[in-house]
Design a protein that fits this description.
With 224 residues, this protein is α+β, with helices and mostly antiparallel strands.
C-alpha cells in the first residue's frame, strides 16, 4: 500500500471534517481511511498497543485557540482518554469485581506519578487525532509509558507524553508492590511485564530499520 500524502487537500469542507460522521468507520471510500490505516500500521510496527488506542476528531468549537491552532490544554485531554482505556484493559487480569472497585477509588488503583509532555507540531482543524501508548518499563509498584499523539492529516507525531503511573493504596496514600500483594494484582504485574517486553522488542526492531530518523526517539529513555 502506497503511503498517503501528508496534509492532503479535500474537495469540500464537509469532506474535510468527515471523520466526525458516523458513517466514516465503515466507509472505505472516506478520505480519512487511508490516512488512518497508515498511522495504525506505523504505530503497530513501532510497538504501540493499538488495542487501547483512541481516535478523537477535532471540533471547531472546542479545540481551537483564536489563531486556529489546537490548544495546549487539548493534548492532556487526548492523552487522558487513551490512558483510561489502558486502565480498562486491566479488567482482563483483575476480573470485573476488582476492576470496579479500582475504578471507583477503592482498595488499590493507578494514579499519575509524574509526566512530561512535549508538543512537536502545530495541529489545525479539521483533523483527527490518534493516540496510543507503549509501556517501556515496569516495576512492582509502577510502570513507565510513552503516550504518543499522531495527526491523520499531517501523518506524523505531533505530541508525546512520558510518565509514571503508580499503583497506590487509596486509603493509605502509599505505593503498593503488586507482586507482594499477590493474586490478581500479581497477575496484572506479569501481564503488563509481557506488554513491556513485546513493545520494547518491536521498538528496537523499528529503530534498527529507521536509524536516521527514529532510532534516537524510540530508544530514548524518559528520565523524569
Amino acid at each position: 500500500m502506497n503511503e498517503p500524502p501528508k496534509n492532503p487537500t479535500f474537495p469540500t469542507r464537509l469532506s474535510a471534517s468527515s471523520y466526525n460522521s458516523p458513517l466514516a468507520p465503515n466507509d472505505p471510500s472516506n478520505p480519512y481511511a487511508p490516512l488512518r490505516a497508515s498511522i495504525i500500521k506505523t504505530a503497530t510496527t513501532m510497538g504501540y498497543d493499538m488495542s487501547t488506542a483512541t481516535e478523537r476528531g477535532l471540533l471547531w468549537s472546542e479545540d481551537q485557540d483564536p489563531f486556529g491552532h489546537v490548544t495546549n490544554t487539548a493534548y492532556p485531554h487526548f492523552i487522558a482518554i487513551c490512558n483510561h482505556r489502558i486502565f480498562e484493559s486491566f479488567e482482563q487480569w483483575l476480573g470485573e469485581e476488582t476492576y470496579e472497585e479500582m475504578i471507583k477509588g477503592k482498595g488499590i488503583g493507578p494514579v499519575v506519578g509524574r509526566y512530561e509532555l512535549e508538543l512537536k507540531k502545530v495541529v489545525q482543524y479539521p483533523d483527527s487525532i490518534i493516540t496510543a501508548n507503549r509501556l517501556t518499563e515496569i516495576r512492582p509498584d509502577r510502570y513507565l509509558g510513552i503516550t504518543t499523539v499522531w495527526s491523520l492529516r499531517l501523518q506524523t507525531i505531533v505530541a508525546e507524553c512520558k510518565g509514571w503511573i503508580v499503583f497506590a493504596d487509596f486509603a493509605k496514600g502509599r505505593p503498593v508492590n503488586l507482586v507482594e500483594q499477590g493474586g490478581v494484582w500479581a497477575d496484572l504485574y506479569h501481564g503488563l511485564k509481557d506488554k513491556v517486553e513485546a513493545g520494547n522488542k518491536l521498538a528496537e526492531e523499528w529503530a534498527k530499520a529507521h536509524p536516521k530518523k527514529e532510532r534516537r526517539r524510540v530508544e530514548e529513555k524518559a528520565k523524569i
